[in-house]
Amino acid sequence: MPRYVSGIEEALPILGRADRILVIGCSGGGKSTLSRGLSSRLDLPYVSMDRDFFWLPGWAKRPKAEERALIAAKVAEERWIMDGTGASSFDLRLPRADLVVWVRVPRRICLWGLTCRVASSFGRVRADMAPGCPEQLPDREFLSYIWNFERRVSPLIVDRLGRYSPGMPVLQLRSRRDMGALVARLQGAVTVG
Questions:
Q1: What span, in angstroms and rounded, lies between the C-alpha atoms of 107 and 72?
Q2: Could you tell me which of 91, 134, 88, 143 has the C-alpha nearest to residue 113?
Q3: The CATH fold of domain 3-185
Q4: Which residue, 41, 90, 140, 166, could crosslink 160 as a Cys pair with Cβ 3.0–4.6 Å?
């Protein structure tokens, strides 16, 4: 069973000691923005699952064996913050993490985030996406994934946390305001090292 951290204040000292952080949650929820903010505040190298492991140019999926080998090599490194839910690689990532930050915002916020992302980046490759993968309109399958995330994926996350990293500290952030407050509090509140 994961050990849920009660809030930002309790999370600050854990963040200050963490060398490896997973940021997980539904697409459109703000994981990448939060990860980049935490990366700069904590001086941790930022890793995007989409950019670094999942996708090849032209929205081609990387072969699973190659993907897992890349993930295994990256998680073996001493310091990182990794953005992406990808439950199929939790067995590699969770045992190496010091903290999980779970962006657990309502689906309407995720859908709004996706809408804003598409509106601002349509036809261009975002910084946290693989080269050759320009932002496109979401298909029905992707929208269904977001709509059903809490019901279908969240129980799987809880199961994998308990299976691969019992006792792992997990900070749940339930709003964009919480994410902004966390990054703002790190401005001088955490002593890294």
A1: 31
A2: 143
A3: Rossmann fold (3.40.50)
A4: 90
Q: Look up residue 107 and give its two tokens.
A: 């689906």
pLDDT tens-digit profile, the chain (193 residues): 789 999 999 999 999 999 999 999 999 999 999 999 999 999 999 999 999 999 999 999 999 999 999 999 999 999 999 999 999 999 999 999 999 999 999 999 999 999 999 999 999 999 999 999 999 999 999 999 999 999 999 999 999 999 999 999 999 999 999 999 999 999 755 444 4
Rounded to whole angstroms, the maximal C-alpha distance in the chain is: 45
Query: Count of CB atoms within 10 A of residue 87's CB?
Result: 15
Residue 180 vs residues 31, 160, 174: alpha-carbon distances, Å: 12, 27, 11
Judge contact between 107 and 146, C-beta under 8 A: yes
Residue environment code for 54-80, b if the CB has 16+ CB neighbours within 10 A, otherwise e: bbeeeeeeeeeeebbebbeebbeeeeb
